[in-house]
Amino acid sequence: MEIALLGNPNTGKTSLFNNLTGSYEYVGNWSGVTVEKKVGILKNSGARLIDLPGVYSLNPLSRDEGVVTQFLLTNEFDKMVNIVDASQLERNLHLTLQLIELGKPLIIGLNMIDVAQKRGIRINLEKLSERLGVSVAPVIARSGKGCDYLARLVTAEEKIPASTIPVDYGPEIEKSIRELEQMLAGYGQHSVRWLTIQLFEGNPYVKEHLLDYISSDQLDRFIEKTRCAVSQAHPGIKSLEQFIFKKRQAAIARLLEEATEKSEETGPPLSERIDQIVTNKWMGIPIFLLFMYLLFMLTFDWLGFPLSDALDAFISGPFTSGLEKVLIFVGAGEFIQSLILDGIVAGVGGVLVFVPQIFILFFFISLLEDSGYMARVALVMDRLMEGVGLNGKAFIPMVIGFGCNVPGIMAARTIETPRERLLTVLLTPLMSCSARLPVYALFVGAFFLHHKALIVLSIYVLGIVVALILAKIFSKTILKGETSLFVIELPPYRVPQLKTLTKSTWEKGKGFIKKAGTFIFAGSVFIWLLSNAGPGGLNVAMNESYLAMIGGIFAPLLEPLGFGNWQAGAALLTGFLAKEAVISTMNIIYFVPDEASLQGLLSNAFTPLAAYSFMVFILLYIPCLATVATIKKETSSYKWTIFASVYALGIAYLLSFLIYQGGKLLGLG
Amino acid sequence: MLEHLKAGEKAIIKDISAVNKLVKRRLLDFGITEGTEICMKCKMPFGGPFMLECYGQCVGIRRSDASDIKVERI
């Protein structure tokens, strides 16, 4: 059995999905967390549950909303579960009515009844269920309360009756529905009532679908005829879309009058009082910057750095010597010993020591997502973003990009206008992701011991500044036109639950550990082999190895940037596969098992100025392989994918050049 | 006009037809249309967006769009 999960944005669909299927998908407190359909298996019955992006109506404006309409039109499914936010019943029921018109069995999961009660709204569940002709199950998706009952309802064998007709759209539209039925004689796929109403609302996906059966001319004439009939009968109605909305609204108002009671509200909610501070006229941006500053101090200075140091001491000390003893004990040959200790332990261990810092960063990003602050950041940033031809919503993909660029680029789907979406996709890779963090941590530890957090913050800020400047340039040149659009829902604040936070931090960080165990592991073996083999055979001196030859090709090009050695060239090359690989490669090349001794060696190969130039280059030079693949998928264009990689390389070279040469002129070299 | 409301003032929307089509659709999704009661919550500085409240939900819109919405103070 296939069950589709639908509802307005930010009503808790994914929380419910996680509860019902026991899996974990990304949740957060803003509109547009889920941008793709996700499939899970129900715990008790084996039925397939399909989580879809949130939509306000089935007539889509943005790409993630299109996913839903496309799904309803083309996929087979047996039942629908509609999650409804009880505190926003009126708005939510617009979607519910459209789903009922679709004519498939539907069950409503009524979420956030507690929030509604606080707002003075009492809902009569029986009445609501009776009037809609649909079963209604109360749930609290965050805690999982009521989910079992909903699951039983959903999987119950007895057939849920497809409900009655919820809205009477008046004689003109009803007549048109019958007409379309005749035009579509023999068609048995979807409810014609639903198709007609969606067509009149201007749903492009439904129109496209109908074009398979009816010619474009005939369809346009049909719409125009109905519009004339409606506007004759109802003077003052300008469009069919508006007329249908009003009819629906009236039906909802009648329904709510019967099924809900409203009492006096109890003072301004906590959410509004918090908003008076964080979206304060003057304090909004400073508060956001303060939050970011705390994040960096904790990650790089106060907490993360000592933890990473301790882990490093453990891996390079007791762990390595223990492993060495074991290897000698089992009689491993020198080749194997070297491969494991100098290759794998150096490569993988060198990346793993940064796990504490990465988890702290992810914890803060999760906090931002779960509290409801994310949408406020978008609001506060909109003025700045408007100035460079973007809108505040583009800031959300960028903040997520600090964790990993891949979900950041996916998050751009919620941006309604194609131009701004493309621009955001192109610029998100400039956000310094967590995989680049180890490189900075290593270099600031070696060169800028007293200003660690500040130097790293400057790199992150540089990424944002370059992105904003390029946004301005691109929107003035290659991506002109189209008005920008910004309307955003600001969800109520919720106190983040520790359980959700730890889970969400772990799910993000897990990927990093997994990558270290697979990709970086294999990469380390490969790099170690390349660094030990050369034209002269195996076990050659490092400078005679294949790796030195390959890295050496790039060295002259990198000379003006301050790091013209083959080691840097080789590290940058592997960094394209995954940014952490830069660290693994350096650990192997410099033949050291731990971070501290690598930092010692680095200070011979780099000057502080060259080190900063190198960090800037790492920040910008190219999106990693996974990100490039995602850009290709999201833009479906080779041209833009190549552009995204090439412009980044150009900007990186230019900036590093300016920083190094400029710094030398100023006597910093 | 909506943009002339001060923070904390309430109004009823009278005419929304001059607003950009996409913005209008999105506002409709939130239930904001002619006849809706809204409350101005906050105005961001330097010509930044506004935060409105209607039916207990908060929505952010741009100042330029707000200047196309006719309202009546209550």
Structure description:
Chain A is α/β, with parallel strands linked by helices. Chain A has three domains: 2-155, P-loop containing nucleotide triphosphate hydrolases (Rossmann fold), CATH 3.40.50.300; 171-262, Helix Hairpins (Orthogonal Bundle); 287-479 and 501-665, no CATH class. Chain A is 63% helix and 6% strand. Chain A is built from 31 helices and nine strands. In chain A, the strands form two sheets. Chain A has a six-stranded mixed beta sheet, sandwiched between helices. Chain A has a two-stranded antiparallel sheet with strand order 6-8. Chain B is α+β, with helices and mostly antiparallel strands and 74 residues long. Chain B has one domain: Ferrous iron transport protein A (FeoA) (SH3 type barrels, Roll). In chain B, 18% of the residues lie in helices and 36% in strands. Chain B has helices spanning 21-29, 63-66, and strands at 10-15, 37-43, 50-54, 57-61, 70-73. In chain B, strand 3 and strand 4 form a beta hairpin. Chain B has a five-stranded antiparallel beta sheet.
The CATH C-level name of chain B is: Mainly Beta
Any idea what the shape of chain A is?
elongated
Number of strands of chain A: 9
Tally of contiguous helical segments of chain B: 2
Ranges of chain B with pLDDT <50 over ≥5 residues? none
* N→C terminal distance of chain A: 68 Å
User: Radius of gyration of chain A, rounded?
Assistant: 29 Å
Straight-line distance between termini of chain B: 13 Å
What is the name of the CATH superfamily of chain B? Answer: Ferrous iron transport protein A (FeoA)
The main sheet of chain B orders its strands as: 4-3-2-1-5
Number of domains of chain B: 1
SSE run of chain B: EHEEEHE
The percent range for strand residues of chain A is 5-15%
Overall number of strands of chain B: 5
Structure class of chain B: alpha+beta
Mean pLDDT of chain A: 89
Give the biggest sheet of chain B: 5 strands, antiparallel
